[in-house]
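note to self: dont lose this again. the chain is below, predicted strucutre after it. 156 aa total, dont forget to put it in the shared folder this time
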Amino acid sequence: MTTTEQLLLPREDADPVIADVVIGVADVLAESAGRLVLVLRPLTGGLLAPERWPRFVRELAGRGVRRRRQVGEAALRGYRFVTPVLVTDALDRLDLPGIVREVLAEIDLPEIIRTSTGSVASESVRDVRIRLVAADDAVSRRFGGRRDTAARGHDE
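---
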């Protein structure tokens, strides 16, 4: 287990450290504050509006906003650092060649290639024929020759 893993995932029988006390207190306070706000909001209506708070409460709120922003930024940095590591770890655990073999076996790739190649070839042949007819018409107009209209399948 790495040092980071040991810090983030302590053993069940690990001795608590002071940080565990702080985390526990913060958890209880946050949970209690959330419950209190849910209970009081319908009862207080406009009394909870920040402009009605005493100055020291607004200052505490400002400090809380700044701290929340700092914690959010730190959490985002941690997320951006950890996510690539987690994704790489997850991908390393996958048997990608085996998955590819299974998918290719399921979708019958040779048949898809045969089908798509045939349709692409048909479209190409049709495109070449249309261009040849247009070129033949251009030559006929330039040199005054007459084409056999029955061969083209329509009347001039």
